[in-house]
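Weekly puzzle thread! Below is a chain. First person to post its structure in token form gets bragging rights.
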Amino acid sequence: MTNIMKWSPFFEPFEHFDDFFKDVPALSVKNQGLIPPVDMYETKDAVIIETPLAGADPKKVSVEVENGVLTIKGSCDRKTEVEDKNYYRKEIKSGQIFRQISLPSRVDDDKAEADFKDGMLKVSVPKLAEAKSKSIKINVKKED
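Winning reply:
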């Protein structure tokens, strides 16, 4: 009888390193869900965020802006998946969508707008006017 040893390119102490994170939902790679990529840029008047959400139902996506942080939540369900398929590749993911991004400048959270077209979500958040510094004249009082 031959004993087959699992090949491990790392030192033995790190063999079960991934097991440490499997019970922590926020840190588990398997439980992260879908994290869509984003493009973020600014115009003269707004910060624009664009993200592809192909396959997502816009009615199941929520967009919130609070304290300069954009949060995108939703779900992407695949109804065509069949268990008895013999996959060569299975790269299209489905499940919960979650992405949170700090916006780079002061924005007006209440006036944010979101549009969904051709599988692309576009969020526009108006920038607030920059506070201008104010010069204050110092009055010098003479002592009597």
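Puzzle host: Confirmed. Bonus trivia for everyone else. The mean pLDDT is 79.
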